[in-house]
Amino acid sequence: MFARLPRPHPFDVRIALAGLLGGLALWALGLGLRPPDAPGVLWGGRWPLLLPLVLTAGCEVLRRTAPRVTLPVATVALVLDQFTQGSLVTIVMFTDVMYAAVLYGSPGAARRIPWITGMLSVLGTIVPYAVWREPEALLIGLATGVVAFAPASTGLIVRNHRQAADAALLRAEQTALLAEMDRTQAVTAERARVARELHDMVANHLSAIAIHSSAALSLDDERTSRDALGVIRENSVAGLSEMRRLIGILRDDSGDREPAAAPTLEGLEALVDTARANGLDVTLEAGHGEGLPAPVGMAAYRIVQESLTNALKHAGPGRVRVALEQRSGSLAVTVTSPYGEHPDGPRAPGSGAGLVGMRERAALLDGTFEAGARDAADPAHGRIWVVRACLPVAEGESE
Fold first, then answer.
1. Boundaries of every domain in the chain
2. Helix, strand, coil percentages, rounded to 5, for the chain
3. Which fold has domain 265-399?
4. Disulfide-capable partner of 381 in 1, 12, 166, 376 (CB 3.0 to 4.6 Å)?
C-alpha cells in the first residue's frame, strides 16, 4: 500500500498553480531559454518542456509537507529541463523548492544542503574552466550558485532567525511563568504572615476574654465578676487596638505611614505581666543576650506569646515557666506548663493554628520546633506540656 501523502498547505497550492500557469503561458507563447537547435538540446520542440514544468509544480504543492521527497524530484526535473529548450519558470520554482527544503526540512538536511550546494558551486566553477580553459565556463559555477546555493543559504538564514525567535518567545513565556509563580508564592507567603500576625495578636486577648467571661457567668460573686469584667475590658480594648493597627497597615498603601514597631524581646516582661493579670502563674527566666537580629527577636516573642495563650486555654493548675537561653549561634526558647486534662474540654476552644504558626516561624529562620506532652523531671509534678524552639542567629546579623 502507498503511504498517504500529507495534506498540502493552501499557500503552497497557490504557489504551484501560479507557477504552472506562468509556465504554460510562456510555453504557449513559445518562449524558451534556448533555441531548438542549440548545443545540448536533445529534445527540441515545445512539448518536452511540459514534463519538467509539471513535475516542479507538483513539488511546489508538497514543498512544506514533504521536503525530503520534493527536492530529489525537483532536481531530476531540473536536469531534464537542461535537455530541452528550457523554461525560466521551472528554474524559478526549483529555487523555491530548494529554499523550502532547507527551511522546512530536518535539522540534518538544513545543515547538509547548503554545504553540498556550496561545494557544487565551487566545483562547477573550477572544473569546467580547468577542462575548457574558456572564461565562459565560469558561468556554470555562477549559475549553480544562483539556482542552488543562494536559495539554500537563504533558507538556512531564515530558519536560524525563526529558531532564535521561537527560543526568545519560549524564554519569555518561561520568564512570565516563573514571575507568576513567584507572585503566587509571594501572595501565599504574605497571607500566611498576616494570618500568623493576626492570630498571635488577637488570640491571646480573645482567650482571656472567653475564660474570664465564663468565670463571671459561672460564679455568683460580685467581686469576682467585677474583676473578670475588668480583665475582659482590658483585653477587648487591647485586642481592638491591635486589630485596628493591623487593618491600618493592610489598607494603607501610600507609603506615608511609619511602619509599626515589631514586637521584640524587650517587651517580654510586659507580655508576662499581661499573662499574670489574666490568671497565669508565670516564671520568666530571660537569659537572652542583647543585639539579636529583628526577625529572631520577633519570632521568639511570638512563640512565647502563643505558648502563654495556649497555657491560658489548656494548661492545668500550676506554674508556667518561660526560659530563653542564647547559645553559640542560636537562641533557645522553652515554655513549659502543666499538662491540662479537663474532662469538659479546654477552658477556651482552639483550632491548632497556633502550633502551625509557631512551627512556620521557626522554619522561616531555618530553626527547629517541637511541642508535646512529657513526664516532668519531678514525678510530683506529673506530666507537662513543653514547647521548645531553637532559632539560629547567623554571625554578622546581630544588631
1. 10-173, 265-399
2. 65, 10, 25
3. Heat Shock Protein 90 (3.30.565)
4. 376
